[in-house]
Design brief:
The complex is a heterodimer of chains A (461) and B (271). In chain A, 47% of the residues lie in helices and 24% in strands. With 461 residues, chain A is α+β, with helices and mostly antiparallel strands. Chain A has a five-stranded antiparallel sheet, sandwiched between helices. A five-stranded antiparallel sheet of chain A has the order 7-6-10-9-8, sandwiched between helices. In chain A, strands 12-13-11-14-15 form a five-stranded mixed sheet, sandwiched between helices. In chain A, helix 5 (112-147) packs antiparallel against helix 6 (151-165), helix 5 (112-147) packs parallel to helix 10 (267-298) and helix 8 (218-224) packs antiparallel against helix 9 (226-234). The termini of chain A are far apart. By secondary structure, chain B is of the alpha/beta class. Chain B is built from nine helices and eight strands. Chain B has an eight-stranded mixed sheet with strand order 1-2-4-3-5-6-7-8, with helices on both faces. In chain B, helix 3 (103-114) links the parallel strand 5 and strand 6. In chain B, helix 2 crosses helix 3 (103-114). The longest helix of chain B has 26 residues, at 143-168. Chain B is globular and about 45 Å long. The model of chain B is unreliable at 1-6 and 159-183 (pLDDT under 50). Chains A and B meet through helix 4, strand 3 and helix 5 of A and helix 2, helix 4 and helix 6 of B.
Chain lengths: 461, 271
């Protein structure tokens, strides 16, 4: 057994590789252990930058991370790098380095075993993170979507979650209403143009398919739609995806995502698009069903106008607002003349058609913001906020004229007229009850009717 | 002297520091991938006698506000360019001398194209408009090389990222701990570093170079593997009227390895 006595041997054949470099990182001294590990001769190492002995990935890390930290702090510890060994696989190493004056002393440790273990660990961690991310995203989505009470808030939640999960710089949610009209409910307004350019909305006539349209780069955009590529450039985007939102009855809209750079959309990414779109679509359908039910409870099913419940609610709000603002509010009560004869003579179906025509005409001539409701039978009520008697008279005259136009529903029905009563609440007076107000308008209408068809009577309270 | 910036918006988010002569021609120094404002430790102080000097941290690095890291926004260099413009606007600067290192060269290029009236000069240190080789263009790297860098980042952060994770998740109870990284030199958040690496090394800004109208200096190091001479030359040739100086400094970090030469070249260009 020999005990080493030479410091030279201790250095040359140490259990770790050792090098010294000058301030530029050029190797000045190196030990045998390092040469042995790297498979290079001394001549191939001396005078070469330490960086150039590493594999490409390690060189990038060396330049961007190792160097600044070493320069600023004077030392760096346990940096994982890979030694290039020509045709052989790189050797994983751990590096400590210390700056001493103009020289940097580097100790290199073989970390093959640690590296193998770490690689497995990393692969497992990445896989776990990927599936965990997906689960978390879908859970977050389901919570956020569940609490959305309007289409607007649902669209905003979908966009926010999708942007974050799929790392999109921008995007939009486009929704299609019952009449097939599409609009951008949340996000970038240009999404609609982009959608049309890439025809990403599934055709109602075709069975809905859960398929994501992808444009991965500006190059691809240019090849498929020059106009689309132009829009992308103008909003500083380079890629996009469009995912249809589909329900039981067909297209509901689209989720559009915009990306700031060229992207590679792999299977998991596309699946996540589809899963988010599916979740949002289910909630959207539920919201629409709810809205439909609420609408039915508050609207007259024959004419689509506000029913008595909704009229009372709106009227009480209008009175409260008028009192606060010190403004007038008027209601217009109208009753069709001779409607009973039409019903008796032509049947209920014709009567119903006449009511629908009248409802549409009244709705068409009132001011924006006025509420038109069917009070019952052939009685209609219009709530006009901030309207004094003069304004209410003007509105009433338009209504009377519109109703009096010939009704081409059934041969022989010809024309119908309406008798009108206006009740205006003046500011500064005690607020009447809803019932008192409606009774006053009803009484005024009777005054008109008694005086002959198609007249208007106004009272104030 | 040091003046305190307004404590809100981009200035607070990006840990902006103002030194030097108030109201003198402003110089904004922007660090590259992997580091923080400390990258300018040996350069910026040389200008405090003549200029207003502004350093800052890109969001995700140094003492920036990590909770401001919106992955979608920072998925392209445009997000960083937006921040730069915001900083300049908030400070009310114009005729800015912008000194950008590495990836921040392209961030400055993008910002100057959007708002040319803010910039008086662009000084690009080790710029590359695209790192990955493409048809007829040699950036110096393949996509495999970039993947290897990402592996390298992961293995180097494996040890401490798990420890840091709860802190960087933006713990609302302890924002002073969670939102700032002050642990070491050039501190970066590992998750963000990985994303920033991808954005940096997978971006392609070649088409933007001809749109630059600001007077530009390309500072090229010798023996820089990230931005080799042909890449620097490409940038110089595609920015109309630009100047290029090949320095004797070796490697990608002349700001740290040879600050004096860098300072001299900047001064020469500005005078």
């Amino acid at each position: 057994m020999t005990i080493e006595t030479s410091f030279e041997d201790l250095y040359q054949f140490a259990a770790c590789g050792q090098l010294s470099t000058d301030a530029d990182g050029v190797v000045v001294v190196v030990n045998e252990t390092f040469l042995d590990w790297s498979g290079r001769s001394r001549e191939q190492v001396i005078g070469v930058m330490f960086r150039d002995l590493l594999t490409r990935g390690s060189q990038l890390f060396y330049e961007t991370r190792y160097q600044p930290v070493l320069r600023l702090g004077g030392e760096i510890r346990e940096v994982a790098l890979e030694l290039s060994r020509g045709d052989r696989p790189g050797l994983p190493i751990l590096v400590n380095a210390t700056v001493v004056g103009e020289s940097t002393r580097i100790a290199v440790f073989d970390s093959t075993q640690r590296q193998d273990y770490e690689r497995d660990l990393l692969a497992a961690r990445r896989a776990a993170e990927l599936s965990e991310t997906r689960v978390r995203v879908l859970q977050d989505a389901s919570t956020a979507f569940f609490t959305a009470s309007t289409e607007q808030s649902l669209a905003e939640a979908l966009l926010e979650i999708a942007r974050d999960a799929l790392i999109a710089a921008d995007g939009a949610v486009v929704l299609q209403d019952g009449a097939g009209i599409r609009r951008v409910v949340a996000g970038n307004l240009r999404a609609l143009e982009l959608l049309d350019l890439w025809r990403a909305v599934p055709d109602l006539a075709e069975p809905p398919v859960e398929q994501v349209t992808t444009v991965a780069s500006l190059l691809e955009a240019e090849a498929t739609s020059a106009a689309g590529a132009g829009i992308l450039r103008s909003v500083r985007m380079e890629a996009l995806t469009a995912t249809p939102l589909t329900g039981g009855k067909g297209a509901l809209g689209s989720l559009v995502l915009l990306f700031g750079r060229e992207r590679d959309f792999d299977g998991p990414a596309l699946n996540l698009h589809v899963a988010l779109a599916r979740q949002a679509s289910q909630v959207l359908e539920r919201l629409r069903l709810q809205a439909e039910l609420e609408n039915m409870a508050l609207h007259d099913q024959l004419t689509g106008l506000a029913n008595r419940n909704l009229l009372r609610e709106r009227l009480s709000h209008a009175l409260a607002r008028a009192e606060r603002a010190g403004r007038e509010v008027s209601i217009i009560f109208l009753d069709l003349d001779g409607f009973k004869e039409i019903n008796d003579g032509f049947g209920h179906r014709v009567g119903d058609a006449v009511l629908q025509v009248v409802a549409a005409r009244v709705n068409g001539v009132v001011r924006e913001g006025d509420i038109v409701g069917r009070f019952g039978g052939d009685e209609f009520l219009i709530v006009c906020e901030e309207a004094d008697t003069g304004a209410a008279l003007l509105i009433s005259e338009r209504v009377v004229a519109a109703i009096a136009e010939p009704i081409p529903v059934v041969e022989g029905v010809g024309c119908i007229t309406a008798s009108v009563g206006i009740a205006t609440v003046l500011p500064g007076k005690p607020l009447p009850t809803l019932d008192a107000l409606v009774r006053a308008a009803d009484a005024a209408m009777y005054t008109s009717k008694s005086a002959g068809a198609g007249r208007i009577t106004a009272v104030t309270l | 002297m040091t003046t305190s910036p307004p404590a809100a918006g981009a200035v607070a988010r990006n840990n902006v520091e103002l030194t030097g002569v108030v109201a003198a021609r402003p110089m904004v120094f922007a660090h590259g991938f992997g580091c923080s404002h400390e990258a300018w430790r040996d350069v910026a102080p040389h200008f405090t006698g003549t200029n207003q000097v502004i350093t800052f941290d890109q969001v995700g690095a140094g003492e920036s506000d990590l909770s401001a890291y919106d992955r979608g926004k920072y998925d392209s260099l445009h997000g960083y360019a937006d921040d730069l413009i915001e900083i300049i606007d908030e400070l009310g600067l114009d005729d800015v001398v912008y000194v950008g290192h590495s990836v921040s060269s392209m961030i400055g290029v993008l910002a100057s194209i959007r708002r040319p009236e803010l910039f008086g000069a662009l000084i690009l240190v080790g710029p590359s408009p695209r790192y990955v080789d493409a048809d007829g263009y040699t950036g110096g790297f393949t996509e495999d090389d970039i993947d290897a860098l990402l592996d390298s980042l992961d293995s180097n952060y494996l040890g401490w990222s798990a420890v840091m994770a709860p802190a960087i998740a933006g713990n609302a109870d302890r924002p002073e701990v969670g939102d700032r990284l002050t642990a070491s030199f050039c501190s970066v958040d590992p998750t963000i570093a990985s994303h920033f690496a991808r954005v940096t090394f997978m971006s392609d800004n070649r088409a933007d170079l001809p749109k630059v109208t600001t007077p530009t200096l390309v500072l090229q190091s010798s023996d820089d593997i990230l931005a080799p001479l042909p890449v620097g030359t490409y940038v110089h040739q595609h920015i109309r009227g630009s100047e290029m100086v090949v320095m004797t400094s070796r490697g990608h970090m002349p700001n740290l390895s040879d600050p004096d030469q860098l300072v001299k070249e900047i001064r020469d260009f500005l005078s």
